[in-house]
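Narrative of activities, Objective 1.

The group set out to show that a structural description can be obtained from nothing but a protein's sequence at a throughput compatible with the screening campaign. Below is one input-output pair from the validation batch, recorded exactly as produced.
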Amino acid sequence: MEMRYTADSVRFERMNSQELRESFLLDKLFSHDKIDLVYSFDDRAIIGTAVPVKNVLALEAGQELASEYFAERREIGVINIGESGNVTVDGKKFQLDNKDMLYIGKGSKEIKFESGDSKKTSKFYFVSYPAHASYPTVLVKKSEAEKVELGSNQNCNKRTIYKCIRPDAVKSCQLVMGFTELAECNVWNTMPGHTHARRTEVYMYFNVGDDSVVSHFIGKPDQTRHIIIRNEQAVLSPSWSIHGGAGLRNYSFVWAMGGENQAFTDMQGFSLDQLR
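Output recorded for this entry:
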């Protein structure tokens, strides 16, 4: 498990591109037949991936958590961005098709990932936060997510937000999680934007395309920088930072939040004339 400290807002202003990438970018995810884990000290989030090709992959705590098993004091949100596969939680198997999501509650001891077909690989991405209570494990199909249409073709930001793990549907301690799909010929996400003073957020971009990139913007509104993001890479967003971006063409991204509350609308907006 990689341990990651992100820079504070003061040091951030003096960082070059490589330093920004080393602090905020997660670019070593989705290894075959391996579970990749990054521990972020911002709200103690853990970001992970599991790509089972030949083997069933078991999620284990490791010495970094000082716990008997991974979810002893944690909850987890899992999304499958690949072919259909299965996540087994304490002996119960859940089938996740593309863009289905699974909430795994605190106290779940045995968690395993496997692809439904050895020639059609599943790609599981998950985010975990500390949990204070145990809630049931729940499968959320893409068709069951709350859909919110935002933006317009005129502003190149027409997109659909899918809210999967949310307070009115899935009980969780602090995790709120879903994904966003941009419509064809639309490239901007989360702009005009906002910050979250009371929680952190993680974006994981996918369906970017090998011949495309996304410029992800971070920093305070009056002190912005950008990080070039490629397919299936994630970026950490501390509470003081904006989070948005633009790509060469449309794409999708998974968003996950944890912190002081679960109110989706608890955000601090800014106007375009504040951006620097």
